[in-house]
UniProtKB/TrEMBL annotation:
GO biological process per UniProt: negative regulation of cell growth
Gene Ontology molecular function terms on file: growth factor activity
Domain of life: Eukaryota
InterPro entries: FAD/NAD-bd_sf (IPR036188), OSGIN1/2 (IPR029731)
Coiled coil: none
Protein name (database record): OSGI2 inhibitor
Natural source organism: Centropus bengalensis (lesser coucal)
Length: 541
């Protein structure tokens, strides 16, 4: 395949030269962008880390890999006395350089990942008890701890936050959405934004993340408009392996030594894709990486009912499509109601959006309204009045209360969608097996979303808790080591954020901490090996 724009190719090459510095310019000119017909040589550049995804997960990981280190603040006292005693024991060390398993032992929180709970309580002590304590950490930039990396994203830094519906408030407080080193309130004040509520609009969060990358000096690590097509293991012969010791991955060294007889060895990752140029053309590239971190989130593929008629154009699967239909006036004057399927917060947002635009709603969901696992049960009424308004309607305006549809809203608890018909009708079935046919103007299926890991072997099905099943945030997250966030089934592949079950921004930061510590340890071992080799006369020339 030929480059569609040679000038764009040159710009990309130059950007990597600037990124890594003049000392690596000779290697960079041979890499990282190659045509697919080029054979792999043994002097190609290998990056220590490639991060796929530039949302808050990828941004936070880049921040730590750039050398920023958290230390216990001089006058800080953590409200947890046991944790504070542990922190005092190694006050002179950054948290990245401490035993995360020891620090997180005994802590409890709303994440199943212990390091996520640890980092959250250091940044937001006792937040789940309603307290607004300041962080017990302060940050230092230590240039010698920088680990070269690149962050690849489809759009600007901030990821999916740039495409979320802008008319709804976030579920979390603005303070819980912020990243280390820059509070959301500081950013809002600098931009002269009047934040009237503790909860904010997604568009404000997206702007904050984009600004964060700039103010923290992380831009050189980020590449926008990049689409990944393949991430695979690179196999090389033994002779090539011996000639490439500088690129050797320390974490897999012992595995390679155990199996000297193999003629081919799985080693670094090959990352392929393309960058969309300003003229719309695609510039293909290929990178090699010792480690790959998956930070893609879960907004790639909307959940589907897998029923007959779901592909009709009047069956939508995103809030943005629904918002576009409203703004274009497509639902104005329609006599039939909108059919909304789902009982999560996005479905509730859709109900509110329709309600506020005087569009009647049929709301279908599988659970009972008394189900304790409904998200509304976990939200305080005073902080989330709009969602409790929806929940109140779900309970009191059910079709079981009245055989007729209500004028503005009617709920159908414990119902499943069996099919959609071309005449814009829907067949529902109740828990008792009773079927009902309803007419609607447009259907909106909002039952969650799933990550699209098509670029991995078997679409990543082999790295979940349940093998050979699609990766999902709740049912089948990627299986990781709880303290390093390395995939248990694939060495040197890391994952964080929603991919490992941490949906909330306040918890995904723990993944960045775990990965940064793991890579820092391996980087140190690698340097010690190289320096030891030079001293003994057997090092790499």
């Amino acid at each position: 395949r030929s480059y569609s724009n040679p000038e764009a190719e040159g710009q990309l090459l130059n950007s990597f030269v600037q990124y890594f510095g003049d000392s690596l310019e000779r290697k960079i000119k041979r890499m990282p962008l190659i045509e697919e017909t080029v054979l792999l040589g043994d002097s190609l550049l290998t990056l220590p880390v490639v991060i796929i995804g530039n949302g808050p997960s990828g941004i936070c990981l880049s921040y730590l890999l750039s050398g920023y280190r958290p230390y216990l603040s001089p006058d800080a006292i953590h409200p947890n006395p046991i944790l504070h005693t542990k922190l005092e024991e190694a006050r002179h060390l950054s948290i990245v350089d401490q035993d995360l398993e020891y620090l997180s032992e005994g802590l409890e929180g709303r994440s199943s990942n212990p390091v996520a709970v640890l980092f959250d309580t250091l940044l937001h002590p006792d937040a789940d008890f309603g307290y607004d304590y300041p962080p017990v950490l302060h940050w230092k930039l230590e240039q010698h701890n920088y680990i070269p990396h690149v962050v690849l994203g489809k759009g600007p830094p901030g990821g999916a936050w740039h495409s979320m519906e802008g008319s709804m408030l976030t579920i979390s407080f603005g303070d819980w959405m912020e990243l280390p080193g820059l509070t959301f309130k500081e950013w809002a004040a600098s931009k002269r934004r009047n934040i009237k509520s503790d909860r904010v609009m997604p568009e404000e969060i997206a702007c904050y993340y984009k600004h964060y990358v700039k103010v923290m000096g992380l831009q050189k690590n980020f590449r926008d408009n990049v689409y990944i097509t393949s991430v695979s293991r690179l196999c090389r012969g033994k002779d090539d392996e011996d000639r490439s010791q500088l690129n050797e991955n320390i974490s897999t060294q012992h595995l390679e030594l155990e199996d000297e007889q193999k003629s081919l060895i799985k080693r670094n990752w090959e990352v392929r894709g393309y960058q969309r140029a300003t003229d719309g053309s695609h510039v293909p590239f290929c990178l090699f990486a010792e480690n790959v971190a998956l930070a893609t989130g879960t907004f790639d593929s909307p959940g589907r009912l897998q029923v007959e008629g779901e592909d009709f154009p009047f069956v939508l699967h995103s809030m943005s499509d629904f918002g576009a239909a409203i703004s274009k006036g497509k639902l104005r004057g329609k006599a039939d109601p909108v059919l909304i399927v789902g009982a999560g917060l996005t479905a509730a947002d859709a109900v509110l959006c329709a309600y506020n635009n005087n569009i009647p709603v049929i709301h279908v969901f599988r659970r009972r309204v008394t189900d304790t696992s409904l998200i509304f049960k976990q939200l305080p009424k005073k902080l989330y009045p709009e969602y409790h308004k929806v929940y109140h309607m779900m309970c009191t305006q059910s079709h079981t209360m009245d055989s007729n549809l209500h004028s503005a809203y009617t709920s159908f608890p414990e119902h499943n969608v069996l099919s959609f018909k071309p005449e814009m009708k829907c067949v529902l079935q109740s828990a008792s097996g009773l079927k009902k046919i309803l007419k609607f103007s447009v259907a909106l299926v909002l039952i969650g979303s799933h990550p699209n890991l098509f670029f991995l072997k078997d679409q990543g099905h082999s790295i979940g808790h349940h093998s050979n099943q699609p990766i999902t945030c709740k049912g089948n997250p990627i299986e990781i080591d709880p303290y390093t966030y390395e995939c248990t089934k694939e060495a040197n592949l890391f994952a964080l954020g929603p991919l490992v079950g941490d949906n909330f921004v306040r918890f995904l930061k723990g993944g960045a901490l775990g990965i940064a510590r793991c890579l820092a340890i391996r980087q140190k071992k690698k340097h010690e090996l190289i320096e030891g080799g030079d001293g003994g006369g057997d090092g790499v020339p």
